[in-house]
Batch of 4 targets.
Target 1
Amino acid sequence: MTTIRPGARGDDVRDVQTRLAALGYPIDPEEHGVYGNATEGAVREFQQRRQLLVDGLVGEDTWQELVEAGRTLGDRVLYLRYPFYRGDDVRALQARLNLLGFDSGREDGIFGERADLAVRDFQRNVGLVPDGIVGPVTLDALLRLRPVGPGPGRAMVREAEVMSRMSATLDGSRIAVDAGHGPGDPGGVGPTGLSEADATPMMAAALVEELSRRGAEPFLVRAEAAGSSAAERARAANDRGAEILVSLHLNSHDDAKAEGASCFYYGRERYVSRPGQRLAELIQEELTSRLGLKDGRAHPKSLPLLRETHMPAVHVEPCYITNPGEEALIRQDSFRREVARALADAIERFFSPAGSSAPAGDASETAGAISGSGPAPGEQFEHRPQNDTEHDRASSA
Ligand SMILES: [Zn+2]
């Protein structure tokens, strides 16, 4: 293109002025169609704001930037194509995805492979067809999700119910069951020496048995994983296409009297997995009402396994291993079976279509949608504490 410079006049100048005005750099009406001082001043201000070379001329870069700055999310359908879509709409999309916990990479305004993966990840997890196309339905789902913060909690719970459009039943559902501890990773230890590494595999086995009996297809994460780290277990659950994950632990506290059940789902500063929250709350309800355990409630937490798995995932601590009474209970086969039944009841309720409604959207984008699952924490790996005890203390705060 020919560089537009002071003194120029005509349609090109008018185009530049119209774009500048739309971006909040109004031009003196007397200068319309003429590249005068006011226009040059506006161009310089725009260049400065957008971190371009400030020369007061409209060359290729400045023109491109003017075009990109004029893109508003929703103006056009975005998807991965070559050359990449560029613009402030893409930047807004990236920021939105990142804010919600889906890793779309740098907010550079370029719709590349990373953004494509993040969009598909998002779609998959709100039950849309993961086609990578940001049209009205996907955009609506994106904008409807409110990042967690000091804002209204109830509204988000309602959104969670809309989102958790569970069309599946327990029958045939793939459920990842994780014994939170194993060889080389004892976890908390009770007064008579029972460790989480002793107890959680037994709890996991009981849950697998109960879920199998009800027609689900549970699998033990540790048996599938390449190693025992949270990242390796998360990968195993992801690779197997688990619809939900339940990681079993026991709580610990210096005070031997501390007792009861707690549950954790993925959440961080401005984001929570709402389906994860829903599942965690159902589990709390079942554990407390069915077993009479004290309610330590469900909490958001950015634990590595919760963060790196792509399905609604919960970290359950039905009891305190440090409480002598609860440690004794956990040793009982009948109690572990009862815990498994409570968890299975909660999972069954989670999968039940009753009480949840389909998200608004046109049939073409929702047809064939997979069963609902949690907004995936799409971020990079977070360093995992060596001793894996942070979660065990989390609910004692
Ligand atoms: Zn643990």
Target 2
Amino acid sequence: MMHDPARIVSTGGALMISLLVFGCLAQDGETVSGEARRPDVILLTIDTLRADHLSCYGYTRPTSPRIDELAADGIRFEQAVSASAYTGPSVASILTGRYPRFHSFGYSNVRARLRGDEVTLADRFLDAGYTTAAFVCNPVLSSRAGFSQGFELYDAEMNEMEAVRDAEERTGPVVADAVTSWLDDRKTNEPIFLWVHFQDPHGPYLPPEGFRNQFHSDDPGVRIADPIDDDHSGKGRVPAYQAVRSTHHLEEYVDRYDGEILAADASLGAILDKLRSQGRYDPSLILLTADHGEAFGENGYFFAHGQDVTRDQSHVPLLLKHPDLPSARSVKTPVSHIDIFPTLTAVLGPQEGMGFGSPLDLGSLLSASNHPVSKRLLFCDIGNRLGVFGDDGFVVGQLKTRKATDIVSLGPEDFHRVGLFKMKANESPIGWDSHSAALEAEALRYLTEPSADFASLTPRGHHLRMLRALGYTEE
Ligand SMILES: [Zn+2]
């Protein structure tokens, strides 16, 4: 039977998850003789998932009963900001704890790779004696692009064919089957670091049987212009890869998207059930997030992401569960993808110095009433646009370049102010007043930091075809 080694230690008001590691930690001068097992660490990511389309984030539709359970068992971060609005750069930030400007993957979604000298979450857990495994199903997250680094098992199989495109996929139930089979095969008592990435809400929105007609709007909403060949931008019209026959209206697409979320939720629930049946759920550290959101007409974009850094594309869910953290708690402090690395590796011991932006162990936020995090500004960075997120009502000061090319070498002089947005309502710009001085100063500090040396990748053959089918490239 597994037991929980982690406990809360209160030191000067700071809350920390500590752990007793295989009897090596002294207690009252004595060595603890029992074999305390380190907690399993489970990272769940869902592609293209807007926080505001989850019931636990206030959505009126019941899209997420199983995710809601996880929220009820842990902490819900109300204002989590993705590091990018693209899959590759965001996931690289999740795995390294660095913003896109400062990791080797950089800004490109399809021409980039994570270099081998990066220290990833999987590297840290593997070095600490964990069994590491990942189950992903997005062609951007390929082994070739470096995302498999540190994983003993990197299952990126996609054996199903999509209904409307010449592209393979792997839907939630198949992912869940692969994960639960792997969990069944665990014979050793080694702790696991498990990463599961669900792709279901990513377009085209084609919920599987049983989830197709779960949601139906009485009013189909505005009609969206039909796609033009190879235009995947979503600017003013349905992206080519998103077009679903006989579906032309905004709310019809939203109905389908919500069905995809419910389907992913059910598959995720199957994994939680397996963890429970194995006695792994209660003692584990579980974190759920999304790589980015999706636009549903905001700023003229439909069913698209990666085009902007506004709330629709950058506000993601972030849930954290551990038995020594409070349950059913909400935290308003804005947090970022870069916080995931120190949050998960906190179970391995004290953190070494993290990079730009002061990534935080989110488990420590709860009792830190005077924590400097309240002054921290966060970024969503897609290269030619930079969102700077403050503490006051989730405000973003957005900077935009005059030029869209050669974004690697952009400096502060290349950006101009777009405006200050009240992000809660996705309102129009509210001007750039004196309150935005801190946002701008931090943005300039970010932009004057030397960027990483980005590593490139040339997608070819099957890899290129898959990326093209998913709307990631028009090459
Ligand atoms: Zn994505």
Target 3
Amino acid sequence: MLTLTCPCCGVAAEETELVGGGEAHLKRQGPGSDDRAFEQYLFLRENPKGVHFERWRHAYGCGKWFHVARDTATLEVFGTYSAQVSAPPDDIRAVIFERRPGWSWREFA
Ligand SMILES: [Zn+2]
């Protein structure tokens, strides 16, 4: 079972206490964007086998959203962090680089 530590309240919550919110760090597209960029924002999502950044909500706890860096194949969690940032923090990236040398994803390499 997946267990994530909520960075907002500090509780180590089991998956049944959480609700997944999909991919993290999406670039929002507004009315001024072209159709391709808006389609990508609305419908297209990454689904990697390996390191991924996701949004989760501590639904049966503090109720707050947060981000998780984890491996989708092994369920290994690299860390959780605030949903108020637009990119993974350096300490989370350092953990990923230490455990997955050569890893890169989008501009977060
Ligand atoms: Zn919480």
Target 4
Amino acid sequence: MRKKTTSRGKRGVNLPHVFGAASGNFYQDVLKKSPIFTSPQACHDLEMLEPVTRDAVKQVIAEAAKLNHKLVPVETYRSQARQAYFFRKGLTKIPTVGCHHFGLACDLALMDTSEPDPVGEHYAFMRHLAETAGLISGIDWGRPNLPHKFRDWDHVQRVTVDDQRQLFAETWYPDVNYRPLQRLGRTRITEINDPILIQPQRRMGAAHPTHDTLAHTGCCW
Ligand SMILES: [Zn+2]
């Protein structure tokens, strides 16, 4: 008999036990049931990241440590209430939800000193680490050859920008086999010293000075 295959990560994938027997996806089964699902507070709990994303973020942090960089998660899950609050304050272009809301994005502050580094370019090394871990970096959204106007230096996510539409519509969720860089047709990972096409006049999305202030300097998905 033909085995039922996974469709858009809805079921049948080899996910950790936290999904339970009749699992849908991490957003439906874990985030929506979390007591902080509607919290307006910042969340930096890695457990609120979808498991593949969580492992990838942990890998980025570990690899950064080998380079003597300290990365600290400052925002993982984000509620609609918090996103709407940011929108009212003019700190994001997205009024309702972003990848953070689905447990598929993380902001990592560079803490090589006692303060989060606010200089976006200092996060350039993260792009290579993110891609090595299977994530898209907000530095170039997986498209290193484009001169992006919007860069979110401390942001990583496990979904392409194009796939965000169906994610936000809750009609799709990435399964464990989803590979955003492959989805973009990428055949190589950026090296750590590959140049970033900087547009100095529009350097947005520098690091969040702290996770619970309104110091976002740019927009965030
Ligand atoms: Zn972010």
